[in-house]
Amino acid sequence: MNDVTEQVGQAGDALTHNPSRLSEREQRGNIWRLTIAQALAGANSVVAYATGAIVGAELAPVSWLATLPLSVFVVGMALCILPVGAIAGRYGRRAAFLLGAGAGVLAGLLGTYAILVGGVTGFWLFCGSTMFGGAYAAVVLQFRFAAADAVAPSRKARALSMVMAGGVAAGVVGPQLVTWTMDLWAGHVFAVTFLAQALVAALSAIILFGVRLPMPSASAASGGRPLSLIARQPRFIAAAACGAISYTLMNFLMTAAPLAMHMHGHSTESSNLGLQWHVIAMFGPSFFTGSLIARFGAERVMMVGLLLIGVSAAVGLAGVEVMHFWVTLVLLGLGWNFGFLGASALVLECHSDSEKTHVQSLNDFIVFGLMALGSFASGGLLSAYGWNTVLWVSFAPLLVTVVALGVLILRKKPEVNQAV
Q1: How would you class 10 by CB atoms within 10 Å of its CB: exposed for 0-12, middle for 13-18, buried for 19 or more?
Q2: Which run of H or of E encompasses 400?
Q3: Are 350 and 233 contacting, i.e. CB atoms less than 8 angstroms apart?
Q4: Which of 10-24, 166-180, 223-237, 310-324 has the lowest mean pLDDT?
Q5: pTM of the predicted model, to two decimals?
Q6: Higher per-residue confidence, 59 vs 21
Q7: CA distance linking residue 118 with residue 285, whole number of Å
Q8: What letter does residue 19 receive in the DSSP assignment?
Q9: Cα-Cα-Cα-Cα dihedral sign, residues 324, 330, 335, 340
């Protein structure tokens, strides 16, 4: 498989008009800028998940709509992934990154205004804010693939993993941003939080101005092989399925957890701390996940991730004390890291350079389209049936995916990528 991956990388080199490999200095500069931007942009998602259900419960006209803003956040991601890929494919990744940062600024400003307005009008404005936040998050997803651009195939998984490690800082900055700012505006809890998030998004845009990546070539614009052909590859199917289930279940449980903690009498500070360690667990292993993928293969790392997600749900079923929620969130974050990064690395083996933006966007659209459905279901299940039901429901898709991936690993045969 490594030989095939090397061939795909060489094919991409031959198809691009720009130098396909940047200098070592430019590569390092890109990776560090993208890592810092990942850390800053992560505050967008952390603020949304830490406050979305709570603000939603305060503003929603009916209780079962409390988690709608978080579902809209995911819908925003799903709707914007393909347009972001098209923009990146035509104008370059940096143009898409800067548009995304602008959406992040709008998300923060509109969120502040929605809280100040309050009531039903404020609720729908807040949903608009989370839609922009989701658009920003869709762009941030491209950071991991941008890091793998123009580096040797053997370094792609490590470059991807390094940028994702920037989320560790987001795991610290995001929840603390909420805690420090939530009560600064008397009578308008979280108003300053969203204003601060807008400022952080603006800072991320400044960092991204310095990213240097090759512009799309004419062959990249053509897109290479038909997507239908690429999507039938067993590797792509495995990558998309495991990425989708890892992210969907992570979002499914994380969306409900802060509100579930609130419903069981735990403080906002406790839920913020739980989310902080959850996000750290999501991104902390990224410092070595790339090495694990290189050594054991993406499929095996994905399997470990799925199993960890199952263990996290089992811990949640054991009780509703603060520690149960915290351990559940930490294991959930670890499982997501292995599952999602393993799936992302596998996607890189499915395309040539000319096909990358189309294939990567298709993968993320599948992942976040399914995630959007799970997000809508999470709030309704929690409101109607409680936290335990949310946990039990998560086992069904997890079991199916584990079995399917296990069969793929056992029956795995070398594939000849038709791009070379």
Answers
A1: middle
A2: helix 387-410
A3: yes
A4: 10-24
A5: 0.70
A6: 59
A7: 40
A8: -
A9: positive
Most confident of 3-12, 13-22, 224-233, 303-312: 303-312
User: Nearest-5° angle of CA 240, CA 242, CA 244?
Assistant: 65
Dist CA 347 CA 84 (whole Å): 18
Please check whether residue 196 is in contact with residue 178, taking contact to mean a CB–CB distance below 8 angstroms: no
Q: Give the Cα separation of 289 and 294 in Å (integer).
A: 9
Domain assignments of the chain as residue spans, ordered by start: 11-410
Q: Measured in whole angstroms, how far is the alpha carbon of residue 174 from the centre of its chain?
A: 15
Angle at Cα 96 formed by Cα 332 and Cα 143, nearest 5°? 35
Kindly report, residue by residue over 107-155, the tens digit of the pLDDT: 999 999 999 998 899 999 999 999 999 999 989 878 877 887 767 777 7
What is the 8-class DSSP label of residue 186? Answer: T
Distance (Å, rounded) from C-alpha 324 to C-alpha 388?
Answer: 12
Nearest Cα to 96, choosing from 225, 12, 215? 215
Contact 38, 143 (CB under 8 A): yes
- Give Rg (Cα) of the chain: 20
What is the secondary structure of 106-121 as a DSSP string? HHHHHHHHHHHH-HHH
Q: How far is CA 391 from CA 102, 165, 401, in A?
A: 36, 28, 16
d(CA 108, CA 133): 8
To which H or E segment does residue 82 belong? helix 68-91
* Average pLDDT across the chain, whole number: 82
Report, as an integer, the average pLDDT of 302-309.
94
> Could you tell me where the DSSP H helices lie in 232-321?
234-263, 268-283, 286-296, 298-317
Number of residues that make up the chain: 420
Q: Closest by alpha carbon to 362, among 236, 262, 205, 186?
A: 236
Q: Are 97 and 139 in contact (CB under 8 A)?
A: yes
What fold does the segment set 11-410 form as a domain? Growth Hormone; Chain: A; (1.20.1250)
User: HSE on the CB side for 240, CA within 13 Å?
Assistant: 20
Using CA atoms, how far apart are residues 225 and 350, in angstroms rounded to an integer? 11
Q: What is the pLDDT of residue 227?
A: 75
What type of residue sits at position 300? R
| Paired tokens of 228 | 């239908």
